[in-house]
Amino acid sequence: MARRYDRGVSARPEVTLAQRKRQLVADELSEAALQLLAQKGFDGVTIDEIAATAGVSKRTFFRYFASKEDVVVQFLADMGTGMRAELAGRPEGEPPSVALRHAVWVSMAVCADRSDHAARALSVVQLILRTPALRARFLERQAQWRDELAAELGTRLDLDPDTELYPRLAAGMALTAFDTVLHRWSDSDGTADPSDLTDRTFAVLGAALDAVG
Amino acid sequence: MARRYDRGVSARPEVTLAQRKRQLVADELSEAALQLLAQKGFDGVTIDEIAATAGVSKRTFFRYFASKEDVVVQFLADMGTGMRAELAGRPEGEPPSVALRHAVWVSMAVCADRSDHAARALSVVQLILRTPALRARFLERQAQWRDELAAELGTRLDLDPDTELYPRLAAGMALTAFDTVLHRWSDSDGTADPSDLTDRTFAVLGAALDAVG
DNA sequence: AGCGCCTTGACACTGAGTGCCAGTAGCGGC
DNA sequence: GCCGCTACTGGCACTCAGTGTCAAGGCGCT
């Protein structure tokens, strides 16, 4: 998809003008959408309104985002890719519980730093968690991450994810942890420490089902 | 799922004529929808078509089901209620892993019996799992079940689900198990034994994260 | 200037989902 | 019988999400 042209002559970045333009429109749309949706609720805003605010037509909106839900969920896409990348980068012999804990922790890192970006992440997460349509789409995205994590675990442990049960279950547990941490963080309005929550969650998971703690 | 009333006679004075009529329409709609959707795909059928097949108007369809997704997902609602009921009915001192395993097993029981009903369940599950919009809604429903299971676990273990992490995590693990079993069963076209799958899944979960196997 | 390539806006269209209203069938009470 | 009361229904009009199509315009290249 993102093909790089080394023709980047005078301009510093290796991207063409058209690509940067496209990114600009995408950012503008995302900005407008998140702002309006957080303010007026998911059903209180139309696509026409979002597009108009961003200065484009409704038709153009759908050239950048597949649906109204997509523009919101897309905002958190980094979490998934970051999670998988971190897992893939973990040392080979590391036990799954540790590797997965780091993977979850990294994807929560966006929420941890004290910046505008974190504040925006909080409002987006809260919007998602209290809007059924968005929560559904977000869960679907998580299911996708789970499959990717399972695949990664499969190669790490040399287990076939289609035959063995462990990779998918372990990935599912990690995602359960992630989801729980996200909920707690959201409910605390961002005051809870994601890092601490993650550690405590994996402390329970590591000890597993029968050891209540 | 379709509630069966003894279509016998003038017994059942508890239920008025109007109520049975209403149930009849709901069954007819559900029947028509499942039939058509499984045959032509989720996007290949319109609500008008479903309603016409059931002999009612489109407007009436939406008086029985909230959305096109709802008519499908509703069909599996029993699984959730059954799961919670089984957990609530388990002996008091039983360890969570055993109680949860039974809860999951009970909700899979519908798939286990060799009848028309099981065949229908299979086609519905397969339809859901390969239709993104349905999968999303189904996952949302599962999230709801997880909250209920967590609440039930909280009372069983005398832990506050809003403070302690364990109930929600354990419920999440059970749902992960459920989802995995359902996927495997669906992928095997119903040839795999749900009971066996459940046992093997919980064998892994009980041993927990770091014990590969 | 000329030719592609990509992006855009405008228009028309389908289909989901909702609000509203008039008609009607069942179930009382009188 | 007749009169409400309630619940269910179909039809209509409407909003809005999402898609196909087409003509037009900017930009790079020769």
Automatic annotation (TrEMBL), chains A, B:
Gene3D superfamilies (alphabetical): Homeodomain-like (1.10.10.60), Tetracycline Repressor, domain 2 (1.10.357.10)
Signal peptide positions (record): none
Ranges annotated as DNA-binding: 46-65
Keyword vocabulary terms for this entry: DNA-binding, Transcription, Transcription regulation
Entries under PROSITE patterns matching the protein: HTH_TETR_1 (PS01081), HTH_TETR_2 (PS50977)
GO molecular function, one term: DNA-binding transcription factor activity
Record organism: Streptomyces boluensis
Protein name, entry field: TetR family transcriptional regulator
Pfam family of the protein (one): TetR_N
InterPro entries, sorted: DNA-bd_HTH_TetR-type_CS, Homeodomain-like_sf, HTH-type_TetR-like_transc_reg, HTH_TetR, MftR_C
All residue ranges annotated as the HTH tetR-type domain in the record: 23-83
